[in-house]
Amino acid sequence: MRVAVLTYHSQNITGNDYINNDHVAFHQDIEHVLKAKIDVVSLRQIADTLLGRATLPSRAVAFSCDDGTDLDFRDIHWPHHGLQQSFATIIREVAAKTPRSRLNPITSFVIADPAARRELDNRCLSGLGWMSEDWWQPAVDSELFHIGIHGWDHCHPMLERYSTMGSACSTGPGISDYQSAKKQVLQAVSYISTRVPNPGTALFAFPFGVLSEYLVREYLPNFQAEHKLTAAFSTEPAIIHRESNRWSLPRYVFGYHWKSPEDLAALLRSLK
Q1: Residue 1 has what DSSP assignment?
Q2: What is the DSSP string of 149-180?
C-alpha cells in the first residue's frame, strides 16, 4: 500500500490559473490522477486499512482540504476573480464521467468554534460569513465529503485570544498537555460529531499541519476511548505505507509541495 494525500485550501485564490488558484489546481489534479488510472480513496479508508479493517489498492491517492470555508461546498463570487467553482461542483463534474468505485469522498477538515470562525472570516477573508457550518450536513449527505476535525479554534494567531502568543501559536506548542488537548481535540470532536455525524469525525488534522509531540506520543494513542479518533494527519510531505504511524500521517499541500502539473506527475510516479 502506497498512498499520497493531496491537500488544498479553498480560500487560496489570487488569480484564475493553476499556480494561484486551488480550485483550478484541484480540478486539473483530480482529472490527472484518474487519467493515470490511480484510484481515489478516502482518508477514513486509509485509517481503517492501517487498523486492519479495510484493504486499499497497491497505490492510491486521497484528497483533503483544510480550514472548512464555504468554498469547499458552495460556488462563490470571489472578489476580483469572479465565480469560483467549489470543490463539490468540481467533484460532481468529475464523478459524472467516473465509475463510483474509483472516486471516494474528500475530507474537509473544519474548525469547530463558531466564534473563532466568525473572527477568522472577518480578519482573514471577506467578513461575508464564508466560514459557516450550515453546509456541513449537506456536504456529507451528498456523499462527496467527509467532515473531519481541525481543532477547536485552529490555535490561530489571528484570533484575539492568542494575540500575545504571536507565531508561537502556529508552531506546535499550542497543544502540549492534557488540558489543551481536551480543548483543541476533545471539545472539537464533541462539537462536530454532534452537528454532523459522519466517518470524518474519527480523523484529526493538526492545525497548520504542525505535529504536537504530546498528541502524537501521549494523548492520541493513550486516550482513544475518550476522543474516539482513529488517525491524525500532518503536512509532512511523504507517502503513506503500512508501517506509517496513524497518529502522524503525512500529506502533501498544494503550493508548497507541488506547484505545477509536472510536479504532481513526479509525485505520482513515487507511488510505484
Answers
A1: -
A2: E--SSTT-TTSGGGTTTGGGGGSSTTS-SHHH
Q: How far apart are CA 256 and CA 179, in angstroms?
A: 32
Q: How many CB atoms lie within 10 A of CB 271?
A: 16
Q: Which residues make beta-bridge pairs with 64? A: 7, 107
Phi, psi of 59 (to 5 degrees): -140, 145
- Angstrom distance (rounded) from CA 63 to CA 221: 24
pLDDT at res. 154: 83
Would you say the pTM of this structure is higher than 0.90?
yes
CB atoms within 10 A of CB 153: 25
* pLDDT, mean of residues 118-145: 95
Confirm if 67 and 109 have CB atoms less than 8 A apart: yes
Cell of 197: 455525524
Q: How far apart are CA 18 and CA 73, in angstroms?
A: 19
List Cβ neighbours of 185 (8 Å cut-off, separation of 6 or more). 149, 151, 152, 175, 204, 215, 219, 220, 227, 229
CB of 178 closer than 8 Å to CB of 219: yes
**Distance of CA 39 to CAs 3, 173, 231, Å?**
10, 36, 21
Chain segment 162-193, per-residue pLDDT in tens: 776 655 555 555 689 999 999 999 999 999 99
Q: pLDDT class for 156, splitting at 50, 70, 90? A: confident
User: What percent of the chain shows pLDDT beyond 90?
Assistant: 88
DSSP conformational letter for 234: -
Buried b (16+ CB within 10 A) or exposed e, 110-147: bbbbeebbebbbeeebeeeebbbbebbeebbeeebbbb
